[in-house]
């Protein structure tokens, strides 16, 4: 059923503020400034002499400040992302951020002075039960101890952020909103291009890819200028803060050891041949080609008479809630709140940001989800993914409070990818038609390859760029060469990487906005695959309760202790391989189904759907 006439939800931000003209905004801006002034006057230069009880009061004052700060910050952010070309909202956002920056500068001493305390002093304070509660928060701050600068330099870095790296990121974001692409003489937005790239028609996919490539090539010099300044700004900061590698600051923020990330990256790259190379080779065969084109990566394999199913919003909602509920009724009940209370903005419209995210806010409110729903299976997956984030954020806000609710990027994808798997397994369990099963499995493989493998190719590209930028400014040709090399290595000989892909790096916003973010997707995918396989094996008693407890821990523990109740460790040499084997198993299954359906150039006589369905039914009854 088409969803074109269906009314899709827009979120209601009134749990934060009633609107940009809400009088409470001005009150909170004044309140924030006063809180910052009082906090600075009372505590700056005096942390060492505070008793445990006094230090606990300081932490609670900082927490209340952070709540007001986050309410203002998130409201202006969420207001703007659904209407990014609105001048009034842009000016409002700029004004709010100026006020936030002024308040933040006054309390910047907090983390710096905590790191100046010696171990005996901080341990004595931690003996007080009201301080001990915040131990993970204190320990996270002190992880930056070796990378903090003198307070005057920290203030300088904050002031210069308005015109340095973050300013170039803002330029990138502004440029992407205004980018238009020529498709058959019509100038279209990124949202339209994204939709066309997933079209069932190859000619539309090719047009979208070539239009994006042409527009990006035209402005590659400008993107190169932006990236050169972002990368140089980061290199300067890394040098001053004494980070060993370009990725080290991100690893520290992600609370993950350098060697764990190196193990992840090397394991994925070793599996390129068995995963992406093999899968794209199979796909080329299924499509009757020697090679697939770059724009064929995510296309569905035509299966003769099987049209892509369209979902209404209500259908998508019910699928996700049912899948959640079969795993954990509590998880489904939390997810239901997002639908019942308009915490989701799903309607595509001009000026709205493309893509999807779930945004945490403050403990006395709730997360908000943004997506663009077009009724495709991919949109159901996106809904499941973002609701996974939402449930995670809801539980961590409720159980950990403002200062410890946040999770590092490496763990933030846990609930989202796990939720996708729940929905996929639910749909697969109900489906016996071999064509539909094949479509489900290949779609899942594509998602897992994009999340678990391709992101490492992005990481490989970033690593090359940031290392090379330390030696001097890079040209758009150099950026393109690095990109082509990384894509060819990851995708293998069965994907045609032609010149229209050369400027594809310009379309990956995380590499501009949050350098070295991308590997966290692969980290999360591998972690969840290992976690879900453990769940299916049934060797961990009370898995669901332990899983929800994990989500409720927020940022209060690191990945090692988080995974311990499940008998897993990301430091084990076989941990990442176990996760990648899940993808390999799905590719095996897709290959068998492809043969049963008579796909490929060297195909056996195709079985009837009925016969193939009977084979699948017997396999599901007797195990793999």
Which shape, going by the Cα principal axes? globular
Q: CATH architecture of the domain at 13-156, please?
A: Up-down Bundle
- Poorly predicted runs of 5 or more residues: 604-624
CATH class of the domain at 13-156: Mainly Alpha
Which percent range fits the helix content? 55-70%
Largest sheet: 3 strands, mixed
Report the CATH superfamily of the domain at 13-156.
Answer: Oligopeptidase f, N-terminal domain
Quote the CATH topology of the domain at 13-156.
Answer: Butyryl-CoA Dehydrogenase, subunit A, domain 3
Task: Report the span from N to C terminus.
Answer: 34 Å
Count of individual helical segments: 28
Radius of gyration: 25 Å
For the largest sheet, list the strands in their spatial order: 4-6-5
Average pLDDT across residues? 91
Structural class: mainly alpha
**Percent of residues in beta strands?**
under 5%
Present the secondary structure layout.
Blueprint: H1 23-43, H2 52-81, H3 87-106, H4 109-116, H5 119-126, H6 129-132, H7 135-142, H8 151-160, H9 165-178, E1 181-183, E2 186-188, H10 190-196, H11 202-218, H12 220-241, H13 248-253, H14 258-270, H15 273-286, E3 292-293, H16 313-327, H17 329-340, E4 344-345, E5 357-359, E6 368-370, H18 377-404, H19 409-412, H20 414-430, H21 434-469, H22 476-491, E7 495-496, H23 509-513, H24 519-537, H25 543-552, H26 559-563, H27 575-596, H28 609-622
Parallel strand pairs: 3-7, 4-6
Antiparallel strand pairs: 1-2, 5-6
């Amino acid at each position: 059923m088409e969803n074109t006439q269906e009314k899709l939800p827009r979120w209601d931000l009134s749990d934060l503020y009633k609107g940009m003209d809400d009088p409470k905004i001005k009150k909170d801006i004044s309140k924030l400034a006063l809180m910052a002034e009082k906090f600075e006057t009372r505590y700056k230069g005096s942390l060492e002499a505070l008793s445990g009880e006094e230090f606990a009061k300081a932490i609670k004052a900082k927490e209340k400040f952070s709540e007001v700060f986050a309410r203002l910050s998130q409201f202006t952010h969420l207001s703007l992302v659904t209407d990014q070309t609105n001048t009034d909202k842009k000016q409002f956002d700029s004004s709010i951020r100026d006020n936030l920056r002024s308040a933040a500068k006054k309390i910047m001493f907090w983390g710096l002075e905590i790191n100046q305390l010696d171990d005996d002093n901080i341990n004595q304070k931690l003996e007080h039960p009201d301080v001990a509660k915040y131990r993970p928060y204190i320990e996270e701050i002190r992880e930056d101890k070796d990378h903090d600068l003198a307070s005057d330099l920290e203030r300088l870095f904050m002031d210069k952020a308005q015109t340095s790296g973050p300013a170039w990121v803002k330029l990138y974001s502004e440029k992407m909103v205004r980018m238009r692409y020529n498709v058959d003489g019509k100038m279209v937005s990124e949202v339209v291009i994204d939709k066309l790239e997933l079209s069932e028609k190859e000619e539309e996919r090719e047009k979208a890819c070539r239009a994006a490539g042409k527009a990006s090539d035209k402005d590659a010099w400008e993107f190169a200028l932006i990236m050169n300044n972002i990368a140089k700004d980061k290199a300067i900061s890394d040098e001053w803060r004494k980070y060993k590698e370009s990725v080290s600051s991100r690893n520290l923020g992600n609370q993950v050891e350098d060697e764990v990330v190196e193990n992840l990256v090397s394991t994925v790259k070793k599996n390129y041949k068995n995963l992406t190379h093999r899968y794209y080779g199979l796909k080329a065969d299924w499509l009757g080609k020697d090679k697939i084109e770059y724009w064929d990566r995510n296309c569905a394999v035509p299966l003769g008479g099987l049209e892509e199913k369209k979902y209404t919003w209500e259908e998508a909602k019910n699928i996700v809630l049912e899948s959640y509920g079969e795993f954990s009724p509590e998880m489904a009940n939390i997810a239901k709140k997002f639908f019942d209370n308009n915490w989701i903005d799903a309607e595509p419209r001009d000026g709205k940001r493309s893509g999807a995210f779930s945004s945490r806010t403050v403990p006395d409110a709730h997360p908000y989800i943004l997506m663009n729903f077009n009724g495709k299976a991919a949109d159901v997956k996106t809904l499941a993914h973002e609701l996974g984030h939402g449930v995670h954020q809801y539980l961590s806000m409720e159980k950990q409070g403002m200062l410890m609710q946040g999770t590092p990027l490496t763990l933030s994808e846990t609930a989202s990818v796990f939720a996708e798997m729940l929905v996929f397994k639910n749909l697969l369990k109900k489906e016996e038609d071999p064509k539909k099963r094949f479509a489900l499995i290949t779609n899942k493989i594509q998602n897992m390859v994009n999340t678990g493998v391709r992101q490492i190719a992005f990481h490989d590209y970033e690593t090359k760029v940031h290392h090379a930028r330390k030696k001097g400014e890079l040209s758009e040709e150099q950026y393109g060469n690095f990109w082509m090399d990384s894509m060819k290595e990851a995708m293998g000989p069965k994907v045609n990487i032609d010149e229209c892909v050369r400027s594809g790096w310009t379309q990956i916003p995380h590499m501009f906005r949050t350098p070295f973010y991308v590997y966290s997707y692969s980290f999360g995918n591998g972690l969840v695959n290992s976690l879900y396989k453990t769940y299916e094996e049934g060797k961990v008693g009370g898995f669901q309760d332990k899983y929800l407890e994990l989500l409720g821990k927020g940022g209060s523990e690191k990945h090692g202790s988080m995974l311990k109740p499940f008998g897993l460790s990301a430091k084990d040499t076989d941990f990442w391989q176990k996760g990648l084997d899940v993808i390999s198993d799905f590719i095996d299954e897709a290959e068998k189904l492809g043969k049963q359906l008579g796909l490929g150039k060297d195909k056996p006589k195709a079985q009837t759907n009925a016969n193939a369905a009977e084979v699948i039914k017997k396999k599901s009854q007797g195990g793999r």
